Amino acid sequence: MPLFSRPASAAKQSAETxxxxxxxPLRKTGLVAAAAAVVMALSACGGGAASESADGPVELxxxxxxxxxxxxxxxxxxxxxxxxxxxxxIKPEFGDxxxxxxxxxxxxxxxxxxxxxxxxxxxITEYSSRGALLDLSKYxxxxxxxxxxxxxxxxxxxxxxxxxxxxxxxxxxxxxxVFEAAGVPLPDDSTWTWQDFERIATEITAKSPQGxxxxxxxxxxxxxxxxxxxxxxxxLYTSDGKLGFEPSDIADWWAxxxxxxxxxxxxxxxxxxxxxxxxxxxxxxxxxxxxxxFWWSNQAPALEKASGGDLKILRFPTKTGKADDAxxxxxxxxxxxxxxxxxxxxxxxxxxxxxxxxVKAGETLLADRGxxxxxxxxxxxxxxxxxxxxxxxxxxxQIKDExxxxxxxxxxxxxxxxxxxxxxxxxxxxxxxxTEEAGKKAHDEMKSAISS
Amino acid sequence: xxxxxxxxxxxxxxxxxxxxxxxxxxxxxxxAYIFLLPWLVGLIAITIGPMLMSLYLxxxxxxxxxxxxxxxxxxxxxxxxxxxxxxxxxxxxTYVFIGVPLQLAVALLIALVLDKGMRxxxxxxxxxxxxSLLGGSVAVxxxxxxxxxTTGLVNQVLAMFGIQGPGWISDPSTALGSIILLHVWTFGAxxxxxxxxxxxxxxxxxxxxxxxxxxxxxxxxxxTMPMLSPxxxxxxxxxxxxxxxxxxxxFIVSGGNGGPSDSTMxxxxxxxxxxxxxxxxxxxxxxxxxxxxxxxxxxxINFIASKYWVFYDD
Lengths: 452, 314
What we know:
The complex is a heterodimer of chains A (452) and B (314). Chain A has 452 residues and is α/β, with parallel strands linked by helices. Chain A has helices at 5-16, 23-46, 68-84, 97-109, 121-128, 148-153, 176-182, 194-207, 222-231, 247-262, 269-277, 300-307, 345-357, 359-365, 375-381, 387-398, 417-429, 435-451; strands at residues 58-65, 88-95, 116-119, 155-156, 159-160, 163-164, 167-168, 170-174, 213-215, 290-296, 312-314, 331-332, 335-338. Helices cover 47% and strands 12% of the residues of chain A. The longest helix of chain B has 39 residues, at 19-57. Chain B is flat. At the A-B interface, α4, α11 and α17 of A face α2 and α13 of B.
């Protein structure tokens, strides 16, 4: 059917030529070709483009969250790997924790997941139970030297979907400068209790300039809640994937926080909300506005760097004054996971093996992602560790005999627990809800988050 | 009305078209469609396709990682009991019903001042328009966060007068207000439209009113407002639709969590959190359709109500 007058006459001319018979099929092939082109174009944006064949270079995408220091170290490690494996190119993708999970979810849904994924325990079940992660036990990754507890943390019904990148523990970091300025001695962390914590923090606030507080508020993630619950004989999750505590337990936790807040041991509600959004190097501890704060052990070196001074790693206070009751545990700081849809599982596994077991990788990454789970690497890199790293390794060693039972792995849906805790913490601090009400509501919400 | 009557006369003519004319018409139509094709393809592939997909997803349980599973109306019934969703609707309605009238009032006021014909008008017009270009942007939202922080600019100024200001954006009772203020600040776009509208009002009306001794205020209420009402209506419809969908400011100012205590949890932000934070894309899709219906209802109300206050000068 002609569209314009001139092409119409052209069509007529061509209609008189002998090709008339083949015109219809020809048009069809044209259509098919166009469709094929579209499909090809689409699949080109979908898959990891430009990663071809056994001989040509393979490009792998590797994504992680973390700050500047981590980005620097990790890129160096990538360079070393590429030097040894000229056929594999690693393309880094990194960003902040806050945007990382939204991005990953979208990428996975779009069938565009990075080949190597830095994974967190909160999300690993979410992804592995839905078949998004590769079972690494089927590939050549040496796990013989890895710490057993750390290795087990990456195992589930779906296989070995994550190799622990480091070992961590929940800690309280103290800034001695703030203590000195206030004239308050540092506590003995092997005997201190929550009462001591309250007293010390209150005293620091009272003796410090306005805007400086004894301690940062807890209640912005699940680590401090986990410790509290364990010290009270409960747990965040049970091994069958349910909540391991009652509404009253979390209400008590908030009641103590409220008490700290009323005594000004911790910052005001508004300041707590603002602090949540601040990146690590602008946190109250790094800027000298908090005497103590709740962090993971592997974050100590980065925080020390940001604060420009010395930091001290402390055990959590206990109810009894005995360090054995602190209820700490070794956490896999992060996992190396691989996308189940990677086109190059062998190369991906090779890179993960490099990260986990190669001394060169260890010498570059040091303790940024926690203490190395591979005992050989840990020993080999010891001389290279910075004083800050050494502190972390020592702390992890120190608490070895005081650890509680390994906690149950976070169930599916655990990724939204932190957000619920944060939200109700601010409800409590702004006195919009009583601690009992917040406990009940938060418990309900968490229950439905992990059961859906 | 003149344009419409012209149109209707054209269509009347069309009715009596000869066969040749009809043929030419259909040829013209085809040409038009060909020229429209790029847009049509975009519309179908980028707008209608995903919309239909999201309609389908709204009846499913879809976690992004596994194929969607049909659950019928479950997502919609869940909305009835979702307290956070109700809260987010409340936040969004507050934002729309306070923010939009305020913004339009400011826009009209500035437009009236600029319309007085001052020197350097293009300069002022640009300056006032600038926030509209920037207002929805991430950078300004971040700036806003700094200005209204506990130790931000606003509180520093207040401190000079011995007033200890709250953490405007970190206190649940003032956070939404700060975002509404940001919205009001972006009055430039409606202002430009108002300004154009004001220029359309024939000066003879004002001259006649002046001769009859009408005050400035009377002139405003009896001449400017009725003559400008179609423009106000246009701005109102656009701004209400846009405000229901606003996302960036709340996302950036609250750090993506709608906090503190969900006080800035806009409907769209909650939708985003459900979809991408909690892998509940089916529910998020259902929410998107709820928003579409809400916007549709309010636009319809707007159009019905317009019959009673919008005045079209023939």
